[in-house]
Amino acid sequence: MDAFYASVELLRYPELRGRPVVIGGGRRHQPEAVTDPVSGEVTRKFATLRGYAGRGVITTATYEARKFGLHSALGLMKAAALAPDAILLPVDFDAYRRYSRLFKQAVARIAPRIEDRGIDEIYLDLTDVQPPGADLPLPLAAGDATEGWGEGATEPESEIDAWWRARDVARALKDAVREATGLTCSIAVAPNKLLAKIASELDKPDGLTILRPDDVATRIWPLPPRRINGIGPKASAKLTALGVHTIGALAHADVAWLAEEFGRNYGAWLSRVAHGVDDREVVTESEPVSISRETTFERDLSARRDRAELSEIFTDLCESLARDLARKGYVGRTIGIKLRFDNFKTVTRDQTIAAATQDAQAIRRAAGECLKRVPLDRRIRLLGVRVGSLSPQRQAEDQPAGV
DNA sequence: TCTGGGGTCCTAGGACCC
DNA sequence: TCTGGGGTCCTAGGACCC
């Protein structure tokens, strides 16, 4: 989806279209509705970034805001310095989750094999998908003629036809998403997930890209390695330092050398992805590994002086986490905490308990034990609680009937 | 002017077992 | 007497992604 959170907000506040808008921060900047006493007309007063003082980062920036250098993960104080008149809206996850469901449902009616990649992104397996309206039977896939060429067997679909069909499917998907949500998305059709992901950023917003295997050298190789999903800031910086500035250069690099620099597994992986090789399936079902809650305080807290406040936050986190587990139907055996100090150093501790739980008090108890193992001599910026080693909650036999 | 919240996966060492 | 070869589980940290 294109600038997903911001685009959802623009549906609600169409008067902000064309203006730089960012989503993020805390809760103290809700738009104020002002009703004209005479006409009854409602206008809204929006907060701008000007004078923003506090913690928080941009979650999403509209394309207009991006022209000012505003982008997700940018600190709001920095953003205010760059574009003081940009509009700041608070995040509304419930709204985004609703629109996420809507767009995924619309897609599923056309292409049901979906891999969820978060609130605003999915992979689709289009192998057997026909464009809506095409009532012809799907031809046998190229190279799949083993069923025989007897009566009724269609001629295998040619490579070219398959790409044309996929383009029609992609157009239909974009139409369906727009109709269901009023939102635009960018789609790439490619031979695998790796290439589809990179190609989906080539034409944004509201883009449609077809990338065939032969296009890798011309369209992918000139791009910086950072565009590859799995090459982040660290690996990218190291590649730059080694003089590898493009995916093409990475493809031509010696695998043994990459393995020396990055380790055997990651080195071999770098070489494969640079060549556009990726044989991962579209994974349509998965179970969560862990569920967590964390919060960054408005100011850094001292373990001694702010003990009461910390304790209350800690309890709240455990209770929220317990509710999340119950709502999603999981119990977990590994209870962990996360602390971030004023110097941004992060530590974690965890403990595996005998019986899986989703009980707030049991979580709080185990997490408290973990907390005792951390020296608390610095001010604390963030506290988190996590439950891992999850298993689906079994229906408790001792529950009252009807539960 | 510091840097959110919710996740996954990988690595690596040590305990422990057969 | 001086040291195996697997395997699994647990823990901590870090890179990376949306």
Write up what this structure looks like.
The structure is a single chain. A 4-stranded antiparallel β-sheet has the order 10-13-11-12, covered by helices on one side. A 3-stranded mixed β-sheet has the order 4-1-5. Strands 2-3 form a two-stranded antiparallel ribbon. The protein is 35% helix and 20% strand. The protein is built from 13 helices and 13 strands. Helix 4 packs across helix 5 and helix 10 (255-262) crosses helix 11 (264-274). The model is unreliable at 397-403 (pLDDT under 50). Strand 8 (187-189), helix 6 (193-200) and strand 9 form a beta-alpha-beta unit. By secondary structure, the chain is of the alpha+beta class. The longest helix is centred in the middle third of the chain and has 23 residues, at 159-181. 26% of the residues are buried. It binds a DNA duplex (18 and 18 nucleotides) through residues 4, 24-25, 55-59, 72-78, 80-81, 91, 117-121, 229-235, 263, 265-266, 288-296, 334, 336, 344, 346-352, 382, 384.
